[in-house]
Design brief:
The protein is built from three helices and no strands. The protein is mainly α.
Amino acid sequence: MTTVLTTVLQVLLALTSIVLILLVLLHKGRGGGLSDMFGGGASSNMGGQSIAEKNLDRLTISTGLVWVVVIVLLNLLTRFDI
C-alpha cells in the first residue's frame, strides 16, 4: 500500500512541479530583475492588476501549496516508513 501511495505522490509531485514552472513563467515581469534586461520593464504598467492576473496568482499559489503538501507527505512516508 505504501509503495502505491509513494508512487502516486511522486507522480503528483512531478506534475505539480511542471505546472508550477509554467505558471511562474506566465507571470508578467514586475521590473528590477532579469525581466528588465530583456525589455520587460519597458512595457511594465503601474496600474492595477487585471482579472486574469489575479486568477493566475491564485492558481500559482494554490499549485504551490499542493506542491509543498506533497513534499511534506513524501518526507513523512520516507522518514517513518508508514
